[in-house]
UniProtKB/TrEMBL annotation, chain B:
Recorded GO MF terms: proton-transporting ATP synthase activity, rotational mechanism
Entries under SUPFAM superfamilies matching the protein: ATP synthase B chain-like
GO cellular component: mitochondrial inner membrane; proton-transporting ATP synthase complex
Keyword Transit peptide: yes
Organism encoding this protein: Oncorhynchus mykiss
Name this polypeptide is given: ATP synthase subunit b
Length: 223, 245
């Protein structure tokens, strides 16, 4: 069972069954359903506290129309964080390294914010294309630039894919190089590996958060 | 909860999915829930449950499970069921970081979770304590009011005395007034009588004087004047005699 570098990114199938579905749904069992008790065990308490705090912080800059997105954004955040963190374990497959998944999340959500903005307040939505206080000769150029910037926003998904893929790949490469190495040099490489691990843990959490944050930002502009 | 809200709203608009409102409708779901255990299961080295060690102790003693673990590991490696590749190193690194993280921050996180629950309990306890103190205070107040109510006879007596005194005062005032009025009437009568007497006396004196004056005849007048002159001469003589002596 030798592994090549990129085996970790191949979408796993078994006898024709795409196991990515399992990889996407099984992490759900890690989050226990809040029980009917008043005082719960530590896991449920922490989970409830975290979800409440996160949602509260996320919804602070949004007005009332944006609060409809609370469940969606919080569940998206939990989903991404779980997938990212579980993917750091050895021999696991990270679904968020697949561009298809991330674009499948980013494009519809971004498009939803744009359409909501265009439907409910078209003037304000189009007004975002021209920042305040621009000198008059720059206006045509700036509008083109802002339109391009608007349409490049689905790069949300690309950002997530790229970050996670790069991180995993770096860890795999550092570990692979570590295998046949002399012990003296191996120490340096293992330090690199250790630091990369720390970075990956941080990146896993941060990227999920950034995804949701930017989405909420786009929502804030348009809702 | 947010998730439950989503699920319930989903069940309302998509009837072809599982009807989530049909779950948990029997009275079984309302039975009292058994208490949660205080602590989680005991583990050795963080992962392996203590029960494995207890299970193997009768047959293999204390080192049994460790030998099992070492033997399994050797078997897996030597038979190449598990091959050491780059993922092993990545796993070793990740394992180190995870174990370090759990050992260092585990107790703090657990204490935080316990604190959250503790605050919940404390809030409810505060309400309960406040209710209890206020009720105890209410009981004391009620007892005080009952004690106060026992003295109502004294209050009534005092009030009755008050009223009696007022009435007595009033009566005495009136008696006093009556006495004064009667005395005034009697004084008037006395004054009237003295006036009468004085007037009668004056009248009589006047009448007597008038009669005396009218009864003095001119003969009497002459004789009296002559007598007076002779008396005066005698007196003058006596006086002259006294003066020369």
């Amino acid at each position: 069972m030798t592994l090549s570098f990129f085996d970790q990114f191949m979408s796993p199938t078994y006898l024709g069954i795409p196991l990515i579905a399992v990889a996407l749904t099984l992490p759900w069992i890690l989050f226990p359903t809040p029980s009917a008790r008043w005082l719960n065990n530590r896991l449920i308490t922490l989970q409830g506290w975290f979800i409440n705090r996160f949602t509260q912080q996320l919804l602070l800059p949004l007005n009332l129309g944006g609060h409809k997105w609370a469940a969606l954004l919080t569940s998206l955040m939990l989903f991404l964080i779980t997938l990212n963190m579980l993917g750091l374990l050895p021999y696991t497959f990270t679904p968020t390294t697949q561009l298809s998944l991330n674009m499948g999340l980013a494009v519809p959500l971004w498009l939803a914010t744009v359409i909501i903005g265009m439907r409910n307040q078209p003037t304000a939505a189009l007004g975002h294309l021209l920042p305040e206080g621009t000198p008059v000769p720059l206006i045509p150029v700036l509008i083109i630039i802002e339109t391009i910037s608007l349409f490049i926003r689905p790069a949300l998904g690309v950002r997530l894919t790229a970050n996670l893929t790069a991180g995993h790949q770096l860890i795999a490469t550092a570990a692979f190089v570590l295998l046949p190495m002399m012990p003296t040099v191996a120490i340096l490489t293992s330090i690199v590996l250790f630091l990369l691990t720390l970075l990956e843990i941080a990146v896993a959490m941060i990227q999920a958060y950034v995804f949701v944050l930017l989405l909420s930002l786009y929502l804030q502009e348009n809702v | 909860d947010l998730l439950r809200l989503c699920l319930i709203s989903k069940s309302a608009c998509l009837p072809r999915l599982v009807q989530l409102s049909h779950l948990h409708t029997s009275p079984n779901s309302q039975a009292p829930v058994p208490a949660l255990p205080e602590k989680g299961g005991k583990t050795r080295h963080g992962i392996i449950p203590e029960e494995i060690f207890q299970l193997l102790y009768p047959k293999t003693g204390v080192t049994g499970p460790y030998m099992l673990g070492a033997g399994l590991l050797t078997y897996i490696l030597s038979k190449e069921i598990y091959i050491i590749n780059h993922e092993t190193f990545a796993a070793a690194c990740m394992g180190t970081v995870i174990i370090y993280g759990v050992r260092k921050f585990g107790p703090d996180v657990a204490a935080f979770a316990d604190k959250l629950n503790e605050e919940k309990v404390q809030k409810a306890q505060e309400v309960k304590d406040l209710a209890m103190t206020s009720l105890a205070q209410a009981v004391l107040d009620e007892k005080k009011e009952q004690w106060r109510a026992e003295g109502r006879q004294m209050l009534f007596d005092a009030k009755r005395n008050n009223v009696a005194m007022l009435l007595e005062t009033n009566r005495r005032e009136r008696v006093h007034m009556v006495t004064n009025e009667v005395k005034k009437r009697l004084d008037y009568q006395i004054a009237l009588q003295t006036l009468h007497r004085r007037m009668e006396q004056e009248h009589m004196v006047n009448w007597v004087e008038k009669n005396v004056v009218t009864s003095i005849t001119p003969q009497q007048e002459k004789t009296s004047i002559a007598k007076c002159i002779t008396d005066l001469k005698v007196l003058a003589k006596v006086q002259q005699a006294k003066a020369t002596v």
